Amino acid sequence: MKKLTGLLLLTFLFGLQASAQKVKTTSGNDDILKSESSINIEFNYDNITVGKFKNEQEYITVKTEEYNKKEAGKGDSWAVSWKNDREARYQPKFIELFTLSSGMSVAKDAKYTMIVKTVSIEPGWNIGISRKNAEIDLEVWIVETANKSSKLATFTINNVPGGTAFGYDFDTGLRISEAYAKAGKSIGKSLK
pTM of the predicted model, to two decimals? Predict the structure, then answer.
C-alpha cells in the first residue's frame, strides 16, 4: 500500500511539473532576446482587476473595511501589505525564477527592457477546509531600454496558478508570489 501511495504521489508531482503555463506571442519577434545575456525588468500594475472587482482600489476598499470590522487597524495594515508585497515578494520571485530558467542576468543598462504588466489577480483563499489557488494574467512587453515607447514584442501568459505544494499558503501574498514565480519561470523558458 505504501508503494502505491508513493507512486501516486510521484505521478501527481510530475504531472504538476509538466503543466507549465503557455506563453503566447501576440506581436513581434519572439526570439528577439536569443543573443542577449542580460535584460532590464520593470513591473506595471496600472488598471488591474482583482477577483470579481472591476479595479484594484475597489478590492482594497472592501477588504480594508472587512478586516477593520473584525479588528481595529487590521484592514489598514493589510492594505499596506497588499501594496508592499509587489516589491517585497512578487517581483523578487519573478526575477529569481526568470533568471534561473532563461540564463539571463538583470541589469538596468541592458539593451532591452522587459515590462511585466499585471492585468488581473485572483487572490484565491485557504481557510483550511477549503482552498483556491491564486491566479494572475500578465502581458509582457519587450522594448529597447533607450526607447520604451515602441514595443518590439508582446506576450501574454494567463491563468498562472499560485499556491504551495502542501497547502500551507494561508497568506494571500504567498499564493500570489508563487504565481509570479511560475510566470517568471515559464517566460524565462520561452525566451531562452
Answer: 0.85
